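Many introductory courses stop at the sequence. We go one step further.
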Amino acid sequence: MSSESPTIGTLVHGLADRFLPQWAEEWDRVGLIVGDSDAGVIGVVVTLDATAEAVERAHSAGANVVVTHHPPYLEAPERIGSGPGPAGTVAAAIRRGVAVISLHTNLDRAPDGASALSRALGLMEVAPLEAASEPVVLLVTYAPADAIPSLRVAMSAAGAGRLGEYEACAFSAEGRGYFDERANAHPAARDSGDGVPEVRLEMIAPPACADAALAAARAAHPYEEPVVLAVPSRRARGAARLGRVCVWEGGTTLGDLAGHVAQTLGVACRVWGDPERPVTRIAVANGSAGSLLEDAAASADTLIAGEVRYHDALAASASGLAIIEAGHDATEWPIVHVLAEAVRDVLGTAVPVTEEPPAARWWTMEAPDD
């Protein structure tokens, strides 16, 4: 491999730039799970699940990276060793020298990821489905006008000010600061009684980056005793939101739509609702949709999802929301293509990228004698 070949760290950084880690749920595991970020990439397999079998397939194909939607675990195993489950996946990855990179709920929220299922089904998108807010930290400081550009750069480099496809986002307002100096103070400017001109600078940051951004602001600040605040807050989500609200021109009833989903995804769907009821607005959510039921009921008459817990589906159906459950994996295979295209964009033509085709790990029996 040449010295110009991309490293695993390059791939991790490139994917994180497209699918921001702050879009992920707090309980999630995203990014580089196993592997050496300084190692070169010789081949990549992109698939849905991070399993020991996926690691072995990658090794057999001559690849040293597996990029997946589902991480190998949400709670780290206490011991690593050969066998089934997460511990076996990590052990296989270490033994074979295969890195594992996972993009999970941050990929689910990314605009292309959230649209993957609705596009695969040929539905026309109307709006994002998720309405919930996201946690952020509001960073505030006060400084002379000529210090604002360097403060903004420093805080941005530490992770503040990234809003989707916009970087270094900030707000400033002019004002005056007042103080009385003590004998040993060394102010950057003296207050003669009517204050000194200052600019209030505001930026937001993901909670995980807040301490680093606050420290960066302190280091770049010209004052010996600067005011740099970190205020926990919440922000209405932007373009990165789970699910989509759609319309469909291919049919008019729940039965028509369920048949279309089953045929497109190659699965037997479980349907809650009268097959003859009309369908006008459709909420689409890949994977588990429990957290989106209220949003779906408020914006649509039908929900297409991977699965919904029984009692949740029972209550939602009784309230008037029809549900089509197509299986967690079946609704998420379309997002694997989005992930594979992102890997190719990051790596270019430098290394081979293999996108695994959809494969069900389960089957259904349509009749007792089937």
